[in-house]
Design brief:
Layout (H helix, E strand, L loop, with lengths): L15 H22 L4 H75 L6 H19 L2 E3 L12 E9 L8 E6 L2 E3 L2 E4 L1 E8 L1 H10 L1
Parallel strand pairs: 2-6
Antiparallel strand pairs: 1-4, 3-6, 4-5
Helix pairs in contact: 2-3
Length: 213
Amino acid sequence: MCCENSKTKPCEEVSQEELCCKDQHDEIEDIIDMAYEGDFNVEELMKEKAALEGELADLKRQYEALYSEAARIKADFHNYKRRTESNVERLRNSALTEIMLELLPVVDNFERALNSEEDKDTPLYKGVSLIYRQLLSVIEKFDMAPIKSIGEAFDPSLHEAVAVEEISDTELDGKIVKEIQRGYVLKGEVIRPAKVIVGKLTDETEEEVGKDE
């Protein structure tokens, strides 16, 4: 027994590594013995190797198919998420636009009331002016801003010309001289164009300009 020889390690002290090395050594010896005894069939081993390689190839194809399917599902989900977020944003902006369009007539009425008041020092005017500024402050928080008009060149994408006014100032030709109704943009999109009057040189002024040229 292994414990009887005093020069050998006690059985309980034999390491796992030593046992593993012994098993591998025994296995190699068995293979050598099989080869010498003629039991080591190379042809059978080659067939088994070919079969294993075939199974490995099948598993590889299955893996590639599953990987491709997972990638497709991931891409579909990404596209679905992007479409959903886009639709939600579109609906939110549409709802906000409707609300602001309902609010604009109120803003217009405040502006008319303030413009028609001659005495700017009355408590009423100051109170209405305060409420108007608060209303504009709320509007600005939603990224809505008025369209610049007076003195600007007429832009059909921003302005709606309701009339043309003859002028003698050449610098105002084709520019907006009066604003009838203020326009607004919401998040960079025009929700109501500004109604304006555009300046046009009188015939006499055009003739004089032509002579000077």
